[in-house]
Design a protein that fits this description.
This protein is 44% helix and 17% strand. It is of the alpha/beta class.
Length: 143
């Protein structure tokens, strides 16, 4: 087992980071909530893309996780809008979908893409990677 000193010079991810999640399936919601809260993250759920956009503007979460097929404003349009606005472009977007649409997600500005079904290890590894990217960006701005 690796000790913290063996982890290299990478900063530990911010375990208190807020993650905003747009997920329609209540079973997947419960699993995401469980996995992410057990890993120490703060989670807020919204039910549609318009609500996600409004909350993202208010809260500026570290990460927004969205499906593609969500009501009112689809996940790709949500991602594109967030990345186009100065105040929200730094939010890391993870598109999580049944659709094989990684290329479309990247074109919309997504920072990461995961294909369903939900896999705890892949989800947590991706979230930690996105948090590290966000922390590195913040450190460069503050230098």
């Amino acid at each position: 087992m690796n000790s913290p000193a063996d982890a290299g010079n990478k900063p530990a991810p911010d375990r208190r980071a807020l993650i905003l999640v747009v997920e329609r399936n209540p079973i997947v919601q419960r699993l995401e909530k469980y996995f992410l809260e057990q890993a120490g993250y703060l989670i807020e759920f919204v039910g549609d893309g318009e609500a996600a956009l409004e909350r993202a503007r208010e809260l500026c979460p570290g990460i927004l996780v969205t499906e593609i097929l969500v009501p009112k404003l689809d996940g790709l349009s949500l991602c594109h809008t967030l990345k186009a606005e100065e105040a929200t472009r730094g939010i890391r977007v993870l598109v999580f979908s049944h659709l094989h649409a990684e290329d479309r997600a990247r074109e919309a500005g997504a920072d990461a893409f995961l294909l369903k079904p939900l896999d705890e290890t892949r989800l947590l590894e991706t979230v930690e990677k996105l948090i590290r990217i966000e922390q590195s960006s913040a450190e460069r701005v503050n230098d």
